[in-house]
Amino acid sequence: MQPTLLVLAAGMASRYGSMKQTQGFGPSGETIMEYSIYDAIRAGFGKVVFIIRKDFAEGFKNTFEPKLKGKIKTEYVYQEMDSFLDGKPVPEGRTKPWGTGHAVLCAKDVVKEPFAVINADDFYGSDAFAKAAGFMNTDCNDKTYSIIGYELAKTLSDHGTVSRGVCEVDAANNLVSINERTKIYRDGDTIYYEDDNGKHIVPFHSSVSMNFWCFHQSLFPVTEKLFHEFVAANYENLKAEFFIPIIGDAFIKTPGNNIKVIPCSSQWFGVTYKEDAPVVKASIDQLVADGEYPTDLWK
User: Domains in the chain and their CATH numbers?
Assistant: First the structure.
């Protein structure tokens, strides 16, 4: 059974200021996610599922279907504000989506095999997909998931703060805890994150999740239960988000469950702010020049 790639592309792109998921960066106008899909196909993935918003579904499909037809199966899932609320109204005044964990849950009816989850606007590199496919083909089961881990210092932006899932791992590279930090930045030789309690140091070489997770399909019923509990506890909090690390943390707290943190040699880069775009384009141009990717991915 070939693994599936689940692409989180429903984000509102509020910090970036445009629909960055469909902006071209490659020599032939390729988006960042196209490089991920290309790497996934090379690694043996059999299907890609896009999590998108219904209001830009038509344009999204018109862009990607002609490129991917005959190369990999595609499916589309809509993350809507009322999905999985079980008839409850969307809280008045809530405009923020329910978060990445909710996005994954929205794919419940179309994913029936081990699957990887990625962000649409992050470039992960071919090694990440090869390692993810290897894990899902041999080690993934209802008791064992994984994260592709990146070194924190290599995932920051020079143009503002970033959000990262900071991992604590044991000697066997099993995940001990993961904490979503939403305001991380470098100041000189030190990396900090800020929260309501002030400024805190994060170890420079911390392993972080860039939302590249490898899951077994048995995740969905557990996630649905967790989401219902989250909504009950946070219904009035209009900015509360159900992040994937909440799911991961609950999973490893169950005896016998493990999440492997798999180190990745690929260089991560992504577009959080407009000012990041030229760096991403230059990085992709260099990879093409080095022969890692063709000048036109889909010819």
Answer: 4-289 (3.90.550.10)
